[in-house]
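Q: Convert this sequence to structure tokens.
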Amino acid sequence: MATLRPALMSDTACAGWEEATRCGNPRVDNAKAASNTGIVPPAPTPKATMRAGIWRVEKDIMVVILKAVRGCVVAYVVQSRPSNLLSWGKDSVIGPLKKLFILHAGSLNNKIWYIRQEARHTYFESIWHLAFMMVEIYVLRPLVLLAGLIASSQAKDIYVSPTGTGSGTSTSPYGSIQSAVNAAVAGDTILLRAGTYKPTTNIQITKSGTRTAPITLRSYQKEKVILDGESLPGTPYGLDESLPNKERGILHIENGNYWKFYNLELINGPYGVYSRDSSHNYYELLSTHDNYESGFQLQGIASNNTVIYLDSYRNRDPRKNGESADGFACKEGSGEGNVLRNARLWDNVDDGLDLFMFGSPVTIEEVYAWGNGFNHWDFTDFNGDGNGFKLGITDNPPANHIVRNSMAWGNAKKGFIDNGNPGKLTVERNTAWNNGDNGFNFRSSSSVMTANIATKNVNAQVSLTGPVVASGNSWQVGGDWSDSAFKSVDPSILKGARVADGRLPASDFLIPVSGQAIGATTKQDV
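A:
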């Protein structure tokens, strides 16, 4: 069965007739039109009165007019025999179907419309196609819209307090975040009152909102809310013990889509936030620190997740002597559209950021990683790697990550490393300063590196091999890149409080005195 397709006659589609016809008042000579288009048009029918509907143009040929577009029409052509060009005439509307479509276009008086053939069908095929189309346009789409409107109108606020014992109202809040999550449906907002919550089992989010009605979990009016995971299992397990998947995270999000999270502090948990096989979620102003695994981790099939204004620090993993606890990790999975923006990752036992075995591009912008990979916890047989930005692993699926306008300084090892990722990474306007090894180490990828700065790193400023393409970087433009080349080498402003909208304050830290558009900056978008 042929697929019914819309024939859209826009100004562009009418271009071949433009001068003579103006897409609605044809004065064109048939022979000239044929030479221009290869199609011989029928003679025009002046004063044809067309309404949106299903029209029989010739025997066994029907046209469904949906709407007018700047002097042409959007329509479906349904026919059982060839015809290169159809002309509207004063034809009968086919049966009772007219009323379903009469809402679309209104009168099209004194016009003659040409439309290319787009599909050929038998009469019965046409009826089936029209039936399915009508169900979609006039039943399914309105039902989806209506469901969204109903959900929006019925959305409710659910309240939780550390001292609550009630049913989730503002005057009688729940005492358990899990109770609120269990009660929430698409469009609801869970509001956490100030205080410290100490769950004994992690908070399981395994349901979803919708695109138009996400579920929101946030502090009430930006009150200070702390989720303390110290009483959870696995805080910590012993050396080399396994941590079951379901126990990972104070917030454990699995197959939970269309959620929004705001203004939460997560401490002392087996991961702060652990999200697995979850997509279309939004995280803003979260602080994840002093956890027994990574502060924030996305894993599995994960797409279109946005994390902004994250602070993740002092996370460690006693189970592995520092091998795996990062500030932010997006690991062992795939999915397009994941973004980390305007985040700070510091003093984590392993790496600031780790994209181990994630096979799709992740966008990293305005992210600052420092002091990672040092053994502040006196682990024996210490295994922390100590990179600012670790962007893959050997045998990683090729992942074309984007790293832009970010800084790595004072990390135990490298500032930025592709770490075996064979993808084509975009690395632009970043700064690596005063790290314990290379500033940039890209030895496996075909990355494109533009306008980056590497200076005062302990070993070679960069280690680049293979098909890396580099241009306009500090090691190429030459000049003095000592500390005196920067307006400031004091990161204290960048380490300080965020401004009212959640962004980091503008600072002169590591901005070139020369004014060159090179390296990262907090003073403008790049």
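Residues 1-63, 65-123 have pLDDT under 50 and may be disordered.
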